[in-house]
Sequence to fold (955 residues):
Amino acid sequence: MIPVLLIFIPLVSGLVGFLIKNEGNARGWALLSSLATLVISLWGLTVAKTSPLLHTNVAWLPDLGSRFAVGLDGLSQILVLLTAVCFPLIFVATWRDQYKKAWNFYALMLLSQAGLIGVFVATDALLFYFFWELALIPVYFLCSQWGGERRIAATFKFFVYTFLGSLLMLVGIIWLYWHTPDHSFSIESFYGLRTRVSGQDQTWVFWLLFVAFAIKMPIWPLHTWQPDAYEQSPTATTMVLSAIMVKMGLFGVIRWLVPVLPIGSWAWGDTVSTACIIGMIYASLVAIRQDDLKRLVAYSSIAHVGLMCLAIFATTTTGMQGVMIQMFNHGINILGMWIVIDLIERQFGTRKISQLGGLAQKAPGLAILLVVVALANVALPLTNAFVGEFLLFSGVFSSTATQYNVVFTVVAGLSIILSAVYTLNMIQRVFFGNTNALTERGVDIKANEKLVLAAIVVLIVVVGVYPKPMLELTKETAEMILTKMNYKL
Amino acid sequence: MNAILLSAIWGVVMMFSGIFTKSKTAIRNTAIVGLVFLLIANFEDMIGNHVPIDVHKMLFFDTFGLLGNSIAFASTLLLVLLSGRDMEKVGNNLAEYFALVFFVLCGVAIVTTFNTLLMLFLGIEIISIPLYILTGADKRNLKSNEASLKYFLMGAFSTGLMLLGIAFLYGASQNGTFFIDDLWTGGPTVAAKPLFMAGLLLVLVSMGFKVSAAPFHFWTPDVYDGAPTVFTSFMATIVKVSIFIGFVRLFEEGFGDAQDKWQVFVAIITAATLFIGNVTAVFQQSVKRMLAYSSIAQAGFMLLAVLALNSVSKQGMLLYAAAYSVATIGIFAVLIRMKDYTFEGFNGLARQQPVLAATVTIFLLSLAGIPLTGGFFAKYYMLSAVVSSGHFLWLVIFAVLCAAVSVYYYFRVIQAMYFKDGDGTTEVEPGAGFKGLLVVLAAVVIILGVCPQSLLSILSKFPYTW
Fold:
């Protein structure tokens, strides 16, 4: 019941949104719909874990063995919550952005939300694939229609990359489907495969699925679409892409890959971890040299996601819980970063660090909020990311799945230092120092923007100080996944 | 049986209708009535009301073939409803064009239900000869003439190969038979004969030619480009998919047991078709030519059904036939009305004609195989059919790589319509009926994409006996 509502509220209101041919009304409608989704997702958190409200399973394609099965467990709760929290924040934060044919923009945004939630709640592989693609199509149109100058080429690269990945995943899903004893796409049947599929098969089917997820995350060397796509998309869409959409990849690995193909995951764990670490260091180094704020955050996102992926393959409870919590935290933090960048760009018409400076004098409110978000980005204690990254590192360090756990931890730890370098450097050059001709005219942020950033800061601090509810929410799922990952059982 | 008779008779009726009336509307309406009758007649066949004629097992009316007929007739009806007026612009002999279309449909009805190689040959020829004429229907256009001649020469050559192949198979069979289900009697001893393999390969080549599989596809772009666009649409959809249904039928009934002997050849042809179709389509400047190559690429996907040959692939074939035909007919119907056939001609169409742009987008997404459209499940069934057989996984992966390439050229049209500035528009303002029908088609594509069962299981539940 609840997951169905979570999908259908944005879906229906998105379709209705195409018909509201008035910019103001469309915006209000989108906000209203996203708030309704938020309320439903909060309701989902309050009901008991065993409640039938959390699951729906109706016939869809009986001949194919696929059902419309959706459900909420700890993992999907946390990601649905992230989606539901982000969308209203995005709408409020970009309230003053102007779009041509804004009703189409907001309608497509809501449709992408429906697709994203669908991905997170689907417990049927074919349905999962359906939503996986459906989340992509609206984003394609959003970026191509309202993006920057090079939008068509950049979006196209993004689309072809992810579509190629999805098709490989489709082949993988079909292959697994034919190996389930009852020819079913249900998650239970897929989880049953972990002992039925031979180790040899697991090692290559693993890649069919992993490539799709790795492109979405993205993991080095499949990340090249990301900086371009982030840079060229309209900021509201970039927020969706980076705060929520990259989590689809991590989610896919946790839900559909490692528990289904534990031997494959174990066999390739070191390879994937190495790619993650190379990506983290590489992306951090590139981020240091970026002059465009959007590209800087894009590369920092690659580094952060790499760490989360690394922790999945560490196969430890702390690491797995860390990933689940950090997915939420990273979404919130990067959303904060994007909002600040959007504010700067709207006011000064540029995102070039070299052209900015001394903003703190002109916009103290913005500066304070940014510093909190930025400190969270470098995982300072008392911020949410500290909780997440601490769990991640402790998970990787204590990993028994790999013999290189110490090396991985140490090298990955470097990326934290590097992230401090580029984040603090960015703050310094944008907010402090002398004002120049451009930033001389700067004014402080408006109420709605303050409200959103304040909400984000509150989330950052609350989760940073009191992460217990989050830990409890994810514990059960994390342990369930880890049991399935243990191929010896 | 009903459909074969009725289409032949109605073809004659159409031919003579040109004598009795000069009104183009009347002629077109006669054709539409004929197509509706054809659909009804075929439906009667499916529920068991046949014309009592003994066909001596030369034809075999099973659900697969009859459903194939339904798809072909319904698609033709759609084509005539959408683009009937454009047929009038091709030349003065409207009645004859319709007569030829009905003769093609007669051939289609034979090819989908044949049970002997002779009927297959007859069916293919009854399809081909009217098509040679239709290709050259635009008599004053040099390209149309060239296309017609090229098609005729190449087609005649492939017909020769098919006949030779049939003769070989006849010679190789144990008791000298044309019946496809008896070809295999005698089992491995028959298959061991070089004559059998030679015959099989010759038939494979000529069927490959008819469905424009690589490397026998060279006629396709020129013929599709040169022919009047209405007939290109007809050839690329109805004719192609019904020959595919015959293709599956022949290989399943005739050579199903010798699968291991020919599978590798079909696999190579499939891979070549997918590769050439998709890669060449990327470099086209004209949407019409792009669609010609895309039809080659789509044929590559349909060949996967021939390769796998199981119940999944037969269901998938029907779904593919429906999804592909509906989407392609829709795109062609819009293309015919465009001022400019190049990609630039579509620039900014979304602003001028939002309905056309939106429906064409849905059709293109379906051709690209995006979920929520019929094209996704069509592709899904094809991939699933091959994966379930457990062999040729490399081909499946190759096929999806090619499908990713196809996104490039399909999305170029979407990009032109929505994201580029320009004043691409239609020659005349399309009527409300045209737009309404396109919307209905788009809805069909989406319904097929949400519940493909609606087509497959409901229709295949018809009791059927002969």
Q: What stands out?
A: The mean pLDDT of chain B is 88.
